[in-house]
Amino acid sequence: MPKLLIKNGRVIDPASKFDAVADVLLEDGLIAAVGPNLSAAGAEIFDATGLIVAPGFIDMHVHLREPGFEHAETIESGSRAAAAGGFTSVCPMPNTSPVNDNATVTSYIVEKAKRHAIVNVWPIGAITKGSKGEELAAISSMRNAGAVAISDDGQPVMNARMMRRAMELANSHGIPVINHCEDLHLSAGGDMHEGFESVRRGLRGIPGCSEDVMVARDILLAEVTGAHYHVAHISSKHSVEMVQFAKARGLRVTSEVTPHHIALADRDTLPFDSNYKMKPPLRSCGDVDAMIAGVVSGAIDAIATDHAPHPGSEKMQEFEKCPFGILGLETAIGVSLEQLVHPGNIHVVRMVEMFTTGPARILKLNRGTLALRSPADVTIFSMDREWTYDVNKSASRSRNSPFDGKTFRGGPVATIVRGEVVWQAA
Amino acid sequence: MYSPDTPAGLLGIEPLTRAEIQAILDRAREFRPVAETSWRKLDLLKGRMVVNLFFEASTRTRTSFEIAAKRLGADTISITAQGSSVSKGESLVDTLNTLGAMRPDAIIMRHSASGAPHFLQRHLGIPIINAGDGTHEHPTQALLDARTILDHGVRLEGLRIAIIGDIAHSRVARSNVHLLSKFGADIVLCGPASLLPRELKQLAPGVTLTTDINEAIADAGVIMMLRVQLERQHEAAFPAGEYFGSYGLRLEHLHLARPDVIVMHPGPINRGREISSEVADSQRSAILNQVENGIVVRMAVLERVLTGRGNAQAAH
């Protein structure tokens, strides 16, 4: 197998607390050496001077839409968007058609990914059959087929007893339960965050408390069951405070935030433009500040994009008719640098951690490190190279991004999966 | 913050300046002799075509826009959602693009979705006049309400006006708040707490909130009642049987207000639900004046949109 030698980059490996200019040698799909002035006969050279060389980034929350919604995205197109965003691994949520609630669908995704995806794909199975909240899904066999967690993302488990049972089972299988926290009675009919902007625009609101009450419930259940509970796309200030509280109590509670929830508030949105419509909604400025504070304090463990492709035919409609969700893979690093690192909220090492060891630990993946003999997944990115996002050139099949046309300072430069460069910036 | 309102269209009151609004109201008064004479028609908009596109049921707004256009000499085409390609599953964007390709000079649009005209205006080169979008704005209603108040010899500056009912779901309330606030009125919004989000206070300067109808009416110069919008409530936000008792306007309330109080209602009224028959038919009711003013105000709006007249005036 060919050898790849990445020269002169600033190598950041949070797992081993390594942060220095060094070379990284990839051989046979594994990390073969990390150190200064490496040389390897016959190795292809990648000059990473001035760039950051990090373990492959993991996005633990994406929607690849396959099977069932291939007009919006496929495992292949989604994996290309992931690579173009600097991600070497993605975890697709189970809200496909059919729902990934049994081992057959899980295996289908795993097999399809083996053949067509250019990054690693670790599926997340459903909590309940059809994500309907009525009957537990085939958790054990999905686990055996490769599911790394369970979640009814988008269709939160409203029945607390069902959630408790799911936590008990997931715990016995060693996988986390991920919940999209939204009390559906409180949020019913809502199209954007409930607050001044929703009142002004005459749109029905999704209150912050619809997230908070479910986070509170789930934390209590996590204590009762001892399960590992993970809050998906956290967006409300009180929810972050409660996760912080749970961690302080020593519970196995983790959380993730999306780049858009650390970058945009409800008042920043172009009114009635569906590229700003997602769940949870873009909340108040105070919530955005609380998300950034949560990243700083460690209440939030990972950055995950909630990449949610929808074709133009669905997004070019009256705001209240449009589906929820925006693209996220290709702009995640740019947005994170801009909101977290450039203003000095966190050090770049912490940002790398949130894309690597953070999700790898939550999902127990043997990824997210440049340790010797670990799989050679590497993300190379720039801290200062200016580039402009053009959604019409996206690798995704969809075009729904609020960041179209935005110029970023810093972004992905190359993506390496199992020793092979699968994407490189033009 | 709002995307640039195409100067030619009229999407809402919020982006307008006081001077622009004043120009429309003044022009509306000038049109009154035309509107009051059954055979008179002007040729200000001769050769122009406006499309009346109503995705939601409407009697007075649609009819008065049509009359207004005809009084100005324009050709009008009315399309309702039933019987159009919309009922065959065509998307809003495609419907509007199709109509746009026929080159009308303006599209008057009512839609049940808040922001539908704003969203379309970004994709369409033809001015859109918002005839009511969901629970957002209904600009011509606020203009005709202001015209009606002024016609009663009441100044808007310092006027205490109570707007009572389902504020949360009312586009009439939002447009009126924006308009009245720009003229320095003192606006009291009143309704059941579940239909009166507290963020309404920030909507514009001069707004206060109360859940007590007596407090709202005290010393009011204008009482504006809103229809209980059953079709926009997705749940029972208030026990239906208690509504009239708590928020229905009855004769006994009127003595709390100023003696010359004017009672208004955008219609259609539900007698016995939000307003008693006695009040609706009383001397204090200006409901039919509102209907009359609908035509002249819409004439002024159409003229402004199609010829830019009001814009030029406001600039001086």
Structural commentary:
The complex is a heterodimer of chains A (426) and B (316). Chain A has 426 residues and is α/β, with parallel strands linked by helices. Helix content of chain A is 31%, strand content 22%. In chain A, α2 (103-116) runs parallel beside α3 (139-145), α7 runs parallel beside α8 (237-248) and α8 (237-248) runs parallel beside α10. The relative contact order of chain A is 0.17. In chain A, strands 1, 2, 3, 4, 5, 16, 17 and 18 form an eight-stranded mixed beta sheet that branches. A five-stranded parallel beta sheet of chain A has the order 9-10-13-14-15. In chain A, strands 6-7-8 form a three-stranded parallel beta sheet, with helices on both faces. Chain A has two domains: 3-52 and 375-424, Roll (Urease, subunit C, domain 1), CATH 2.30.40.10; 57-363, Metal-dependent hydrolases (TIM Barrel). The model of chain A has no long low-confidence stretch (mean pLDDT 97). Chain B has 316 residues and is of the alpha/beta class. Chain B folds into two domains: 18-137 and 292-315, Aspartate/ornithine carbamoyltransferase (Rossmann fold, 3-Layer(aba) Sandwich); 153-285, Aspartate/ornithine carbamoyltransferase (Rossmann fold, 3-Layer(aba) Sandwich), CATH 3.40.50.1370. Helix content of chain B is 37%, strand content 14%. Chain B is built from twelve helices and nine strands. In chain B, the strands form two sheets. Chain B has a five-stranded parallel beta sheet with strand order 7-6-5-8-9. A four-stranded parallel beta sheet of chain B has the order 2-1-3-4.
